[in-house]
From TrEMBL:
The lineage of its organism: Bacteria, Bacillati, Actinomycetota, Actinomycetes, Kitasatosporales. InterPro entries: Cro/C1-type_HTH, Lambda_DNA-bd_dom_sf, TPR-like_helical_dom_sf. It comes from Streptomyces durbertensis. This is Helix-turn-helix transcriptional regulator. Gene3D superfamilies: Tetratricopeptide repeat domain.
Length: 422
């Protein structure tokens, strides 16, 4: 059976930290680059089409008969393959995530934050974990407009108000995403990054980059997801060491690489995430939501699932369910969905039904379109197994539970909320 040639940008995304690609780019040896891509399954025809040269010319480059010399062709290669401009001695390309500008304040000391702002963020964050973003999004946006916006232009406000604005704008982005409004989420993330930069808080900026990486993956752009995760890692090296944030960023990178079938690179990124997390010392940052052991287990399960390592994925999914407290209703529900998903893929249908019963009445008022979308994706996984009587009976109960949930959440469900990756 002929396998479709992989997307070249996904292949490149998995090689950005590979010494062979780095060497080829630094030496501007495009023949070596093309050979590396071809060895990873990208056809010479696709390489030629991407960079707008003949297939014969590509062969000449690969055989060392000639070299790329023209600046315009280097630019075409960088843009076609999403190779960051600096790797080829070029200016930053238009598609690259904007780099953080000069930081007006160092992050080596304690982060300044107004106690009232911190209290508001904690209040919204705790409510969101339990009730979902759909019922809180409007309140966060209103607070930004009524209580924060005017302070940004008040000469008497300190730089820390930009941190509060960034943290709340990032929170609005996540809540919009949780409500099935990804276009709005993207706009909020785009606004949060310059606010974080204006505050001088590079770690807050890195955390926003992690959010943008997540959203890019959900909307099917794995290459951009890798780019944003790497941008966040680059930012994180500029500030005080917060290992949990570094682990989170490596995890986002691993998820994007796994989604694009870059198995070795994804496994390496996951190992880096685990190393950062388990070697960590306690480090607190007031604006960042915790990335804890349950979150690492949950993300690891999804990465390993996409890598086809289902037994390991199931271990991590079960660990995530065990670790996640009932006070985190959405996280617990998502972890349970992942557990059932992996059990189905692993062929353990009776165990999947047993675990799935916990989802039928779990948090029916949880205002999360994202949960609804993932429940629908779970149903699609179950459908081919309807010949198995327990699955067939479970699906009847599942559909009844879904109808009740849709009625209860009719006020927050947008007209169209297509499926997403988890």
């Amino acid at each position: 059976m002929n396998r479709q040639s992989p997307d070249v940008r996904d292949v490149v995304a998995g090689l950005l930290d590979d010494r062979r690609l780095i060497a080829a780019c630094s030496e501007r040896d495009m023949g070596s680059l093309f050979r590396l891509l071809n060895a990873r399954g990208v056809s010479t025809r696709r390489i030629a089409a991407a960079v707008d040269v003949s297939q014969g010319r590509v062969y000449d480059y690969m055989r060392g008969k000639t070299r790329v010399e023209k600046l315009t062709l280097f630019e075409q290669i960088a843009d076609a393959f999403h190779i960051p401009g600096h790797m080829l001695g070029l200016a930053r390309r238009g598609w690259e995530p904007a780099a953080a500008g000069p930081q007006p304040h160092s992050l080596m000391g304690p982060i300044e934050a107004d106690a009232d702002d911190l209290s508001v963020v904690d209040h919204f964050r705790n409510a969101d974990r339990q009730t979902g973003g759909g019922r809180l999004y409007a309140a966060v946006v209103r607070h930004l407009s009524d209580k924060v916006a005017a302070r940004l232009v008040d000469a008497g406000s300190g730089h820390h108000v930009f941190g509060a604005a960034a943290a709340l704008t990032e929170m609005a982005a996540w809540m919009a995403h949780d409500s099935g409004q990804n276009d709005r989420a993207a706009k909020h993330f785009a606004r949060a990054l310059p606010l974080a930069q204006a505050s001088g808080d590079v770690l807050l900026a890195a955390n926003v980059a992690a959010g943008r990486s997540h959203l890019a993956l959900q909307t099917g752009d794995a290459a951009s997801s890798v780019g944003w995760a790497q941008a966040g890692l680059d930012l994180a090296t500029q500030g005080a060491r917060v290992p949990a944030l570094t682990a989170k960023l490596h995890t986002m990178k691993a998820r994007a690489l796994a989604a694009s079938a870059q198995h070795l690179a994804a496994s390496r990124a996951l190992d880096q995430a685990r190393h950062a997390f388990h070697c960590s010392t306690e480090a607190h940052h007031p604006w960042l939501s915790p990335f804890d052991a349950a979150a690492l287990a949950s993300e690891s399960a999804l990465i390993l699932r996409d890598l086809g390592r289902l037994s390991e994925a199931l271990e991590h999914a079960t660990e995530a369910v065990t670790l996640r407290s009932t006070g985190r209703a959405r996280s617990l529900t998502l972890s349970r969905i992942s557990q059932v998903d992996i059990l189905i893929r692993h062929g353990e249908l009776d165990a999947a039904v047993h675990a799935g019963h916990g989802l039928l009445n779990a948090s029916p008022l949880l205002g999360s379109v994202r949960v609804l979308q993932q429940l629908d994706e779970l149903r699609q996984l179950l459908e081919p197994h309807q010949g198995h009587r327990p699955i067939r009976e479970y699906l009847r109960q599942f559909d009844e539970s879904r109808r009740a949930r849709m009625l209860l959440l009719a006020d927050i469900i947008p007209p169209s909320s297509g499926g997403t990756r988890r």
